[in-house]
Amino acid sequence: MNIRTQLTLRYIGIVLVVLLAMYFYLATMLKDSMSHRITSQLEIQAALTREFLIEKLPAKDNFTYEAIDPLVDRLGETEKARVTFIDLEGVVWGDTERDGEALREMDNHLKRPEVQDALEFGSGIRDRYSDTTQTEFRYYAMPIYRDVSTQTSPDKERTLIGICRVALPMEAVNTAIGNLRQIVLFASVAGLILAILFSIFSTKIITKPIEKLAQMTQSLAAGKIDSRVPVDSKNELGQLSRNFNLMADRVQEQIDKISEEHRRLETILTDMGEGVLLVNGAFEITYANPMAISMLSLPDVYVGKALIEINRIPELHTLLQAAEQTETVAFAEIRLGNLTEPEAEVTVVPVSTGEEYVIVIHDVTKVRQLERIRADFVANVSHELRTPLTTIQGYAETLLNEDTPRSKTSEQFIVKILTHSSRLSRLVSELLELSRLESGDVELKRTRCHLNTFHDPILEVFEPILEESELVLKWEVPEDLPEVSVDQQLFMQVLANLIDNAIKYTPDGGRITVSAEIRTSEAFEGTNITSKEIIVHVQDTGIGIPMESQPRVFERFYRVDKGRAREMGGTGLGLAIAKHIVLRHNGRIWLESTLGEGSVFHVAIPL
Ligand code: ADP
């Protein structure tokens, strides 16, 4: 049932209830008032009748029909009521409704209730159906006393001589109620028609905007986002319509925004050089961009298929499992084709609750090729430079050592040639060293040793320069430190490079401290897997490194102050070599420094 029918029915119901209540109230009120009026009228008429009969009635023993009935008839005619006279034995001597024989045949009226009440209480009133007249009457009976003088007493005595009864038909009351019923019926029908018309009209006003709202929400739900409802009133319904339109505006705005973002994202994903895949918790593909499709040679239908089934790359599966277990980003270089070199950097990022993973595949084939070409070039150039440099150095040395007379300028030139060529040769060997480390050609010859093993060789190398610069080298490595497994020659180079830098960049009279400690750390953030490592600190009281240069000092050829570094004989490769050696040991290297106060370089080697 729609809202309009419901409202209409309710209106009609209310009108019906009101009309019925009105009818019952009016009917009762009218009946009561009419009945009251008839009773009062009867009372007056009965009193008048009694007075008349006291006057006119013959003596008790001389009662005859001929004397009484005409009296009663006359009274009835004047009062427009039925009048009856009954004697003490119940014999009816006069009645307006009966004459002659019929009067004589009337039953004894002594036992009539109103008569009994009149004898007992002085008056009697009753509504009854009259057998005589076949209609409903209200009877009012009164005893008639007459003052009679007796022989024994001179005083007159009140003697009961009979009962007079006046009756009025109740027809008037019933007719009045019947009329009322008709009026109410007519009013009800008219009211009902009015109520129906009114409800149809008024519910239409209320329900029309609601219907429009319903239609609008329906078309909104069906996806017609531009549907709006007309606002044609200022009441609550108008407000509701306005709010609905505002809501639809907002929804449209949001959808437009999302669509735009979706389109942008789609463009980015389609055009980007990286392959992007989305897999669910069961590692089934839910999305793949065109690049990922071509990189992994995905079939036409791939959505919902398990990645491992489509593309049998165990490393990719292992990477996904690692991301699942650690709930963090997993990264690896993976071979996607049949090439011997890794050709893709793959990153797996768990999204939200680990229910989804984003796989980003970055093709590094070209980068790797270029890196190889560059490394080969550097190695080749360095290699080619080495022989002529050694020759230049050899000849310069021979010239210098020759015992022939020469000018001061020539001698200065020879010394300059020697210094520069030896610097060049250092640069070349460092470059070669770096190339070898980068290419992975260097094989680590790991042996277990205590860090203190490096103390004497270090002192041997740096003692002269330390003394010359009045610098103090403090060696504070605890004896009880566990042994580390390192390539001693390479690790010595790391320490030498760091100490060499510390010496170079610490003004005379400063202090260099080498210390070490063992530290336990979380292997994976958020897990309870721990790892132990030995950390070596090389601290100086030197010039320090500005904040902006700190992340760059491990880059090859990066120098904070180029002029100064060159003056110091630096190549800009020392820290790059140290970093590569540490990385080959699966360690870490980092620094802390305050400008003008000094620097600390930390090297962590896992145990
Ligand atoms: P270099 O051979 O020039 O010392 P490195 O790679 O060893 O090259 O260092 C790179 C740069 O980092 C240096 O040029 C210098 O500016 C800075 N540096 C390295 N160690 C220190 C240090 N202990 N104190 C101040 N600056 C340093």
Core attributes:
607 residues; alpha+beta; Beta-Lactamase; 5-stranded antiparallel sheet; binds adenosine-5'-diphosphate
**How many structural domains can be distinguished in the coordinates?**
5
Which range does the strand content fall in? 15-25%
- Give me the CATH fold name of the largest domain: Beta-Lactamase
CATH superfamily of the largest domain: PAS domain
Kindly provide the name of the CATH class of the largest domain. Answer: Alpha Beta
The mean pLDDT is 87
Hetero groups in this structure are:
adenosine-5'-diphosphate
Level-2 CATH architecture of the largest domain:
2-Layer Sandwich
Number of strands: 17
Describe this entry's structure for a reader.
This protein has a five-stranded antiparallel β-sheet. Strands 7-6-10-9-8 form a five-stranded antiparallel β-sheet. It has a five-stranded mixed β-sheet with strand order 12-14-15-17-16. The protein is rod-shaped and about 205 Å long. The chain folds into five domains: 3-177, PAS domain (Beta-Lactamase, 2-Layer Sandwich), CATH 3.30.450.20; 225-271; 272-363, 2-Layer Sandwich (Beta-Lactamase), CATH 3.30.450; 368-439, Signal transduction histidine kinase, dimerisation/phosphotransfer (DHp) domain (Helix Hairpins, Orthogonal Bundle); 446-606, Heat Shock Protein 90, CATH 3.30.565.10. It is of the alpha+beta class. Strand 14 (511-522) and strand 15 form a beta hairpin. The longest helix has 54 residues, at 3-56. The two termini are 81 Å apart. The protein has helices at residues 3-56, 65-79, 100-104, 113-121, 171-221, 236-271, 290-295, 307-310, 314-326, 365-401, 408-439, 455-468, 488-504, 562-567, 574-584; strands at residues 82-86, 92-95, 124-129, 136-149, 156-169, 275-280, 285-288, 330-334, 344-351, 356-363, 446-449, 472-476, 484-487, 511-522, 530-540, 588-594, 598-606. It binds adenosine-5'-diphosphate (ADP).
